[in-house]
Amino acid sequence: MSFTSLLLLREFLAIFEIGTAAHSQPRVSYFFDEQVANYHYGEKHPMKPHRLALTNHLVTSYGLPQYLDVFHTRWATDDEIREFHAADYVEFLQRVTPDNVAQLTKTFSQFNIGDDCPIFSGMYDFCKIYAGASLAAARRLLSGDADICINWSGGLHHAKKSEASGFCYVNDIVLAILQLLRVHPRVLYVDIDIHHGDGVQEAFYHTDRVMTVSFHKYDGEFFPGTGHIDERGNGMGKQFAVNVPLKDGIDDATYVALFKQIMRATIANFDPSAIVLQCGADSLGCDRLGCFNLNISAHGECVRFTKSFGIPLIVLGGGGYTIRNVSRCWTYETSVLLDVDLPNELPPTVYHEFFAPDYQLHPVLSGRIPNQNNAAYLNDVSRTVLEQLRSIQGAPSVQMQEIPPDIQQFLEGKILVKLF
């Protein structure tokens, strides 16, 4: 029996054991600031915040806001960003601009500024917008007013405590998880970006209160060069970093089956009380920087499966560099989170010509790269990861304390401005 067939059989046999959420409509909050799409890394840089405008226009044109609580939130403050990032690094981000860049070049190597992470106009404001949205998402989840919170501008998983990395300057994911940990005993982080979620893994590498699970390409050289299956955490965090290294060309059926098998075991063993899901769309086929064969439906099936457990969920963006496919993917995944079916024909928007020549929600993105993930390799990865998860021997406990003051302020309704 092939690897994929075996996993599908296991999926069928296990379906009655999954504790899924009730079939009532989930309460979904959606965070978007139109300004976030107006920043520009540079003409030849692959990161294009404009993809967020395309996404929001599609979400709106499909009529999805009628099912959403849509919020425009305040920007993150300097103090909030310093809850994870080092003070000298935050001070650098505050000060540096294209106009004074020559005066600060001596510190570039210290903070990893360069071609991947350039200095551009409004850079720190851009960071405060997307980080503020992720923080607001975490706080709304904590308030109990939403089951799912979406921030497609977030998910910048490479940023480290004291340096930029991989187009990421502020790690909004870590900031959001730190908020969740004020109330939730255990938070699960799941990353389906093609690049390893190294910044988040590093931040929580020594704790058992956050489990990080990353599905990514790994060959030791592909950026960021981390994510080997033997990276498992350290100290109290030993076994709580899970890495699923994949090779070029993985296809829909294999990826989804592997994802479901590992995530079912992860949730059963770790028993999270909240989940943060990073949906980097560079794992789609035909991505400018990617090398997988995933279609939008398969990417979205991972979102659907994660949602099915009924655990409070934050869904974030991340990578994705063929922007017409990024926007289609995140629009589709918004509909998945809402349990709303969308027609394949795209509705008209001001960006309609971006989607030529097919003008469809689900273009064919598969089959461009040979699949190097054979059954033997995938069986070995699956067996190793499942053995790691079994070694946890029960979810870790934590002594809970009184709700911190800043969360209490949110529960009293002092943070969000609802748009409609």
From TrEMBL:
It is found in: Nucleus. It catalyses: N(6)-acetyl-L-lysyl-[histone] + H2O = L-lysyl-[histone] + acetate. Substrate binds at D116, G166, Y321. One of its GO terms (molecular function) is histone deacetylase activity, hydrolytic mechanism. A divalent metal cation binds at D193, H195, D282. Residues 1-22 form the signal peptide. One of its GO terms (cellular component) is Set3 complex. Keywords: Chromatin regulator, Hydrolase, Metal-binding, Nucleus, Signal, Transcription, Transcription regulation. InterPro entries: HDAC_I/II, HDACs, His_deacetylse_dom, His_deacetylse_dom_sf, Ureohydrolase_dom_sf. The keyword Secreted does not apply. Its EC number is 3.5.1.98. SUPFAM superfamilies: Arginase/deacetylase. The active site is at H158. Residues 45-336 form the Histone deacetylase domain. One of its GO terms (biological process) is epigenetic regulation of gene expression. Belongs to the histone deacetylase family. HD Type 1 subfamily. This is Histone deacetylase. The lineage of its organism: Eukaryota, Fungi, Fungi incertae sedis, Zoopagomycota, Kickxellomycotina.
